[in-house]
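Go through this fold for my students:
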Amino acid sequence: MPADSAPHNAPPVRKRVTLALIDDHQLVLDGLATWVLRNAPDFDLVIAAGSWPKLIHDPAFPPDVIIMDYQLAEPISIEARLGLCRAAGAAVIVVSALDDPATVDRIMAAGAAAFIPKARPASEVLDAARAAVDPNYEHPGLSIADDDDRFTPDELDILNRYADGNSPVEVALMLGTKPATVNRALDRFRAKYSREGRPVDDRETLIRRAAEDGYLT
């Protein structure tokens, strides 16, 4: 066999995902870029831009995925930014210190692949980026308990995000998991209240029960 040929049963070489970062706070940009380079070998960081013009005029644009700050200095709407990036073929993960339901709804309606609050760890942002390019990607650390009387931190996180006004699909996008996983966690809370004779038939009742029991932060 020639030295440069591969055996027929060799696994295909998976191309690394090209990634761009855009944030007009240089400290945040440098920190996330450093984290990606050290901890995410499946990504090829091709752009780290401090402004919108620098992103779209970079020779490496468009990458596969863009991690974008919601609030940039340039007066360009999130709808316009996401529309251009999506038209170019890039998936966009939006991050922001603002995480109220109205802001999240606007971002998701504009076509973001996911929204991640800036208070979350960098690993969660990259998991969302992986899910954006691979529909079969499952968050490796998401934990759903089998014990009927115990809830994991991940399940409580799901419940809190749902209580904040996000749909199960939006929660799944935030966490880089599948909507079925989110619904399974929510169903476990509903089952608990049904066993206790405190059934929940809608979102509002579930949230009220969870608040009564101290599950919401």
The chain is about 45% helix and 15% strand.
